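Is this the right way to post structure tokens for a design question? Let me know if I should format differently. Anyway, here goes:
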């Protein structure tokens, strides 16, 4: 297999975003309550449900594209969907990073950067 590293990174991103999306769906009210407190001193404080819905949609799109990209890489060596999965993952992580920086949660922002590095690697390897 020529694409083992790309597949492993896409699996990492898929697990990350599918699990995160699942958590948001299964505990919507708990996530809203946490985020209302987290963003209470920001301009997002009145838009938490809408912002969370946007993040959820992007996470699910990212995760699904990464899964399909893995399958395509393994079956016919096609990198297209995996590349889109990497790109959507980067966009999703930038959205999350923006929120953490806005909330002045610098430790949370640092954690997001840890995920951003493999996402950029996936984009680089698959482009």
């Amino acid at each position: 297999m020529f694409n083992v590293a790309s597949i492993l990174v896409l699996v990492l991103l898929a697990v990350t975003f599918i699990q995160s999306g699942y958590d948001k769906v299964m505990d919507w009210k708990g996530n809203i309550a946490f985020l209302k407190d987290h963003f209470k001193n920001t301009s997002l404080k009145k838009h938490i449900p809408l912002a969370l819905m946007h993040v959820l949609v992007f996470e699910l799109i990212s995760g699904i594209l990464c899964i399909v990209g893995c399958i395509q890489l393994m079956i016919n060596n096609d990198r297209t969907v995996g590349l889109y999965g990497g790109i959507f993952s980067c966009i999703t992580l930038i959205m999350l990073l923006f929120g953490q920086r806005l909330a002045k949660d610098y430790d949370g922002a640092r954690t997001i950067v840890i995920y951003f590095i493999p996402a950029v690697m996936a984009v680089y390897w698959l482009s």
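Format looks fine. Someone answered above. Worth noting: The mean pLDDT is 96. The radius of gyration is 15 Å.
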